Structure formats: structure tokens, C-alpha cells
Amino acid sequence: MGTDQSVGFSLDALRDRLAYQPLLLGGVALVAGTALTLASNATRAPIAAAEAHDTQMTLAQVLPPGSADNDLLADVLELPGPAAGSTRRIHIARKAGVVTGAVFNVAERGYSGEIRLLMAVDPAGRVLGVRVLKHTETPGLGDKIEIARNPWITSFDGKSLGEPAPAKWAVKKDGGIYDSFAGATITPRAVVKAVKGGLDYFAAHRNEILGVQP
After folding, report:
1. Is 77 left (phi over 0), alpha (psi -120 to 50) or beta?
2. Where are the domains of the chain?
3. Which of 45, 54, 134, 170 has a beta carbon 3.0–4.6 Å from 174's, enabling a disulfide?
4. Pair 91, 63: CB distance under 8 Å
5. What is the rounded distance in angstroms from the CA atom of residue 36 to the CA atom of residue 107?
6. Quick one: which of 132, 104, 96 has its CA closest to 120?
7. Are 108 and 133 in contact (CB under 8 A)?
8. pLDDT (tens digit, 9 = 90+) per residue, 109-157?
9. pTM of the predicted model, to two decimals?
10. Euclidean distance between CA atoms 11 and 28, whole angstroms
């Protein structure tokens, strides 16, 4: 008799524990989820602020000092991109309300992946500056497109569709004016193509970018 009661008691206790565990796990999950949500909300604003600051600093790198007094992050125009169905964000630089430049991303396939660039163009269609945003080119060779490693990227400053002539928008190996890197011709070739493409895009959308009525 004692044994039967003991067994029954043990089974009842086990059932109670099994019923209790899902409730306990649910409570723990709820507390953990609430904590993560609160942490996410607490860090969202500082992260967004840091990202905005980084973007602002990057935009400033391709513009001459003092060439803009507006909020480049807010003064944005969205136009059709070069690919079908795509869009391109154009940051408009202004000084005393007058447009002084347009800043936008361009990209081309390099040796080992896409090379993304940020370039600025003045209202006359001249390059104000170009910087590399992202690439996966070979360290020690293709990474010379980075301003921190080589000043080569500044060779585009002041250039336009008419200077040099269209046929000269190439690396010297292809009959153009731009230097290439020993053992890494594909990388600078892609950058030259991307910048030239950016100038072509600006020329095609100049009136829209500058707010000029055709």
C-alpha cells in the first residue's frame, strides 16, 4: 500500500513539474524578449546617429571644403538608376541656396568583386572628388585605389567628359591617361569606367539634378 501511494505521489509530482516547465520557459522567453527589445530601442538612436555621422563625413570627403552649407543627408533627390527598375540617390550640395555639386554612388565589377565609389560632380560636369566605399580587391595590389594607401584616386579631380577626350578615359595600357598598378590593371580599369559612367549619368540627368527647367 505504501509503495502504491509513493508511486502515485511521484507520478503526480512529475506531472506537476512537466506542466510547470513550459510556463517557466515561456516566462523566461518573455523576459528575455522584453530585455532584447528594450536594448534594441536604447541603442537604435545612437547607432543611427553614428551612421549618419559616418555618411556625412564620407560625403564631405568628395566635396571641396566650404563648398556646401546645407544638410547633405536631407537634401536628397531620387532618380532612375542606370539599371532597369533601379533608383539612384543624389545628395545635392548647396552654398547660399545655389547648387554647387551632386554626390552619388557608382559601381563597376573589379578583379574580385564589385567596387563601389562615391563621387561628386560640380554643375559644369567636372569631378570634384572620388572615394572608394567598398571593394574586395587584392591587398597590396588592387587596394591602391584607397586614398589611405595611394593618392591615385585623386587623379580624377577636375576631369570631365571633355577633358580628357572620351577615347582617353582609360588606363594607359588601353591608350588612356590614367596610370594602372603593376599586376593589377583590372582594378583601375574598373574605377575609370565607373567614374566615366558617373559623368555620363550626370550629363543625362543634369537638368533634373540642378533643378533647371528644360
Report:
1. beta
2. 1-61, 76-210
3. 170
4. no
5. 37
6. 104
7. no
8. 999 999 999 999 999 999 999 999 999 998 998 999 999 999 999 999 9
9. 0.76
10. 26
Say how many CA atoms lie within 13 Å of 13 toward its Cβ. 6
Query: Residue 118: which H helix or E strand, with range?
Result: strand 114-121
- Tell me: the pLDDT tens digits for 30-63? 777 776 777 666 666 666 555 555 677 888 899 9
CA 196 remoteness from chain centre: 19
- Take residue 186 and report the three cell numbers written for it: 583590372
Closest CA to 76 of 61, 58, 94: 94
Q: Cα separation of 131 and 28, whole Å?
A: 48
| Secondary structure element (H or E) that encloses residue 114, with its range | strand 114-121
Contact by Cβ (8 Å): 120, 129? yes
Residues in the chain: 214
Q: Residue 180 is placed in which grid cell? A: 594602372
Q: Shortest CA distance to 171 belongs to which of 204, 146, 201, 195? A: 195
Alpha helices by DSSP H, listed for the chain, are: 2-61, 186-204, 206-210
